């Protein structure tokens, strides 16, 4: 029976192909994981839990499953880890059966809790969803008029109800799905169960990945190949707007007009970890390469077609006369960039402080102080304590956070999310980059509302933002840093120098290098070097000098001359249009000239790639450096 769908040609797929295929599918949400099983053996719970665990790399904050039991489908959901879901299935005595779907959710609409976790159930439909239904508000209003009541804040539950509504109307599952495809805007991959069909999983997708897979003991759906590798290597990539009907011994595929289509069965020839890393050797490298997309996602979430949109998407910041930026580590260094931009361009006083100091220093507030917290995880204990301190004093708090519904996001008066997606490598790269991008937009907005930027300049910046993704993609391919990296990897001490924004960025460059390569490294304001640290420069010492600021780069070049005269190995990272005498540096890494509001987003890329390369050459545990944790939830 299985052989009946082998009308398609088998094909070996290389690791790299998978990654390319993913990229080619365009805008994609590498969050949330879907697994489904329709089989001949009662092994649903193992398949679903194994599958979700294999998809954990995508990041998630809640999990759930719907499994066929004697009385129909039973849903179990939990906040937190897949292991907790596994435990709950056991506690609730949900027996393994022949049919089930499961999901890990990364919150986008509504906090991570059991209500918002998938599967959702409405009428006769149970489903899991990856993606975002952009027109869910309109659909929800329509459905509420029809009497539907919603238990969650999610777009996914609306999609579930809408599918039920269409199924009631048409009494035809495929027709209901086809109509839903026509009605839904945005991105989706769905695994669907109908109460009156205990043999099939239904699936459909647009812009979010979904595969169907062929096994000896049944068939599967999944967000990605690793989820089913334990059970099968043969899979089918579902195309755009395609639907699938999957039973234990058959997979049928349809286009959006319900025409049955043939498909190719591909054979995965890869190692699970490789695929999870999208073909990259480490998560850190993968995450650096995601930066062009996540930076643009973050900017576009706030800045629409014109600068006035920032007024609508950000809280009203017009009345604050001083800003305290409070954060830890790289997030604090992102704050240093914001300080430099906001003070010099919008002329508002900004103090930046590490949260562990701020929380105990009895900060001086005024009526017009805003406390701005920055955190990827939203759970960093010191940052959270600093936020609580400001709140207790009645001071307005504004959090920039990556994880939806995290403690810092929940407690702050205002919150703006970065859209970096889940970050797995302990050392932050893409989350930092999106923090800088969002903070730069805030600085741009403040500069505008305080009247310090001309219409012509605004137009020029908006034009540059339109091109930013391409600029960043270009940076990813650039290999200028490679020779410098080889040299630095042989030394035990490195110095970073810069002025203004370059100094702020050099602190992050230095942290990145030391935390993953274990090379001692320090960042100095270039003009400060001769007040002490220059005594450490000896023959060969690598000095990474950042010089991207038109007003300041000549000053930095003078400081470079000072270290060069003492034998330093100078790596100059400067704008491509600056003319610098070849005698003053040993290696040059040129970066594109962009507006000052965007310059650090561009310049950080060679710094991250350089650190990565050096750590790799030194054989370090790049994704999990010693002694470090991703989320520091203790003081
Ligand atoms: C460095 C790094 C840390 C974090 C810091 C704050 O690569 O990742 O310095 O930036 O621990 O963490 P969040 O942003 O989660 O508050």
Mean pLDDT metric: 91
**Which shape, going by the Cα principal axes?**
globular
| Helix residue percentage | 25-40%
Q: Which cofactor or ligand species appear?
A: fructose -6-phosphate
Report the structural category: alpha/beta
CATH class of the largest domain: Alpha Beta
First CA to last CA: what distance?
A: 60 Å
CATH architecture of the largest domain: 4-Layer Sandwich
Short description:
The protein has 635 residues and is α/β, with parallel strands linked by helices. It is built from 20 helices and 26 strands.
Give keywords.
635 residues; alpha/beta; Rossmann fold; Glutamine Phosphoribosylpyrophosphate, subunit 1, domain 1; 3 domains; seven-stranded antiparallel beta sheet; disordered N terminus; binds fructose -6-phosphate
Description:
The protein has 635 residues and is an alpha/beta fold. The chain is built from 20 helices and 26 strands. The strands form 4 sheets. Strands 1-16-12-10-11-2-5-3-4 form a 9-stranded mixed β-sheet. It has a 7-stranded antiparallel β-sheet with strand order 6-7-8-9-13-14-15. It has a 5-stranded parallel β-sheet with strand order 18-17-19-20-21, sandwiched between helices. Helix 4 (136-145) packs across helix 5, helix 9 (291-302) runs parallel beside helix 15 (430-449) and helix 9 packs antiparallel against helix 16. It is globular. The protein starts with 9 loop residues before the first strand and ends in an 18-residue tail after the last helix.
